[in-house]
Each structure stands twice: as structure tokens, then as C-alpha cells.
Amino acid sequence: MISAERETTDTTTDMRGGIDLGGTKIQAVVVDAAHDVRGEAKQPTPTAGGPADVAAAIAATLREAADAAGVETSALHGVGVGSPGEIDAASGTVGQARNLPGWEGTFPLADELARQVGAPVRLGNDVQVAIEAEVALGAGREYGSLLGVFWGTGIGGAIVLDRRSWLGRGIAGELGHVVVVQDGRRCPCGRLGCLEAYAGRSSMEARARELVAQGRTTVLFELMEEKQRTRLTSGIWARALKQGDALAHQLVDEAVEAIGTGVASAINLLDVEAVIVGGGLGVRLGEPYRDRIAAAMLPHLFNDDSPPAVHVAGLGDLGGALGAALLVEETA
Ligand SMILES: [Zn+2]
Fold first, then answer.
1. Is 256:212 a contact under the CB 8 Å cutoff?
2. Cα–ligand 1 centroid distance for 78 (angstroms)
3. Can you tell me the distance from the alpha carbon of 128 to that of 192, in angstroms, rounded to the nearest whole number?
4. 180 alpha carbon to ligand 1 midpoint, in Å?
């Protein structure tokens, strides 16, 4: 994402901020009008406190990215935030963000953050902005219709039909809560047998702890302590797989099977051209697991002669933040 015209075009008056607010980390970028990244930073998402602490951490991460880009946050044309939970873009509030600490009610994130960084803030759904970034700038550019699968703390989904996001009555694309096992494992949403109960990283971690309590051994939690983390990040899962850890392989295999089942069911319904696999784990595990997900879909695809293309998200880990910055574009 290097622009040859960088030196000759003065885009510094038109810099935007983009924030990907995840359950595990906050990723910030500062981009110019050509979507080139001028500065980036990431920090862990606070695990304690409440919405005000998360807002402060977002502001700090954005300041770090703005420093790297050589601008003040108050000079940004605007800041977009891709957030989990129930987003009301018009009022700038986030409610019911289960993966964020102490976020039970509704919080005016846009106003609070705008006050802290001195620039206008616009909110969007985290998964929606990430898929819109892939459609505009990444692996989705050549397709009219696609399904985004975000394999991270939870499992997010997004549907694009005729190059437009399909939102249904507001929450379409909840792929993580497609049922893959009737009366199966308990999902973080409280229901039984959802895809997220088998493949969401927090469910995988809970399952790993259960199996360890039953006497199984694994390097997962040793790696977590070594890295001074409080939870199993995508990097830790990737490292454990590389070390041949049997329990990590078993849980990731189960996750891949569940994703294949859930995604194939969605394809049978929608018949879109492509599947884009993103999210922390999806991007970290990359091409080999993209192939394995495609293989796990096949037995469940009704039209198995002509499976959809399956790609890893082209914008990688920055997709969510780049997509959030596109929210500013809309209002420019
Ligand atoms: Zn669920």
C-alpha cells in the first residue's frame, strides 16, 4: 500500500482514522485519501473496567497511530470505528457488546471518543466494515456476491449481494449463530449448537480449559504465560499448532469442521460467488486453513460440482481498521 505519488500529493489535510475494536485487541490506522496507511498501532483491549476504559484505550491507540503518521488526532478529517455489539450509527451508541468488558447497557462511544480525540467519529458494525473494505480494496473486488467469515474471538459473518451489504432487518449475517449441531454445545449467546460454540476463539479456549481440567496436557497455557497474555490469542494457537500440540490440533480441527458445515449451509441458501475468510485466527492461520475450510465445506454443499471460491481476506489484519476509515469517506 505504498503510493508513488506520496511525495507530490499533499494528502495530509485529508487524513482519516480507522479503528477496529475487537474483543482481544484495538487496531488503529491513519490513512490518507488514497487509503494508504500512514501510521498504525495496536493495543490489547482492556479486560476489566467498562466502556469509558475502552474509549480511553481507543483514544490512546489512535494517538499512537497518528504520531506514527505525523499528525495530531484533532487534525484528522474524521475517525471511523468498527465495533462489536449493537451499533446505532445515527446516535453514535454501542449496546450489548458481549466481548467487551462491563458493556451491558448502551454507551455513547462516538461522542465520548470525539471529545477525547478532537475529531468527528462515526460508528459501524465491525464485521460489516471489514467486509466492505474487502469489497472496496481487498479480496472481494472481483465478485458481485460473497460471504464474509470472520474467525476470531467469536465468528462473524457478512453477506454482500450485487456488491451491496445485505443487512436484513439490521443484523443479517450472524453466521456464528447458525446451528451446526442440534442440541449441541452451549454458545456464548446462551443457545445450543451454534457454530461459534465450536469455532469461536473464546469457546475454543473454554473447551481447552475443560479438557485440561480432565487431565489432558497442552502447551497452549504455557505459551500464554510465556507471552504474558491473559487469554489464548491467535498467535498462541498458531504456535501450538506449529509445535504439534495434539490438543490444539484437535480443537482447531473441530473448529474447521464446524466452519465448513456452517458456511456450506449458508452457501446452499445464498449461492454467492465467493467466501472471504478473515478475522484474527482466519488471517493468522492463512492459506493452509483456507484450503481445509474449503475441503470441510464440500461434503455439505448441495452444488458440489461448482463450489464458491474461498479466499483469505486480502487486507489481512488491517482490514477492519481500513474499513472503519471508509466510514469517514461516506460522510466526506
Ligand atoms: Zn450462539
1. no
2. 34
3. 25
4. 10
Side chain identity, residue 251: L
Q: What was the pLDDT predicted at 6?
A: 46
Give residue 99 CA to ligand 1 midpoint distance, Å.
13
Tell me the CA–centroid distance for residue 119 and ligand 1, in Å. Answer: 36
Ligand 1 centroid from CA 9, angstroms: 48
Neighbours of ion ligand 1 (CB under 5 A): 177, 187, 189, 191, 194
* Distance from C-alpha of 110 to C-alpha of 114, rounded to nearest angstrom: 6
Q: Enter the C-alpha cell of residue 74.
A: 484533532
Specify the length of the chain in residues: 332
Closest alpha carbon to 127 in 91, 105, 108, 151 = 151
pLDDT confidence of residue 8: 46
**Distance of alpha carbon 90 from its chain centroid, rounded?**
22
pLDDT for 317: 85
The confidence score (pLDDT) of residue 5 equals 46
pTM for the whole structure: 0.85
CA distance between the termini of the chain: 22
Q: How far is the centre of ligand 1, averaged over its atoms, from the C-alpha of 128 (Å)?
A: 18
161's CB contacts (< 8 A; 6+ apart) are 144, 145, 270, 272
| Cα 206 to ligand 1 centre (Å) | 15
Pairwise CA distance, residues 227 & 31, whole Å: 30
Strands 146-151 and 86-88: unpaired
- Residues whose CB falls within 8 Å of the CB of residue 187, separated by 6 or more in sequence, listed in order: 176, 177, 193, 194, 196, 197, 203
- In the reported structure, the alpha carbon of residue 164 is separated from the centroid of ligand 1 by a whole-number distance in angstroms of 25
- Residues in the chain where the model's pLDDT stays below 50: 1-9, 331-332
Predicted local confidence at residue 171, as pLDDT: 80
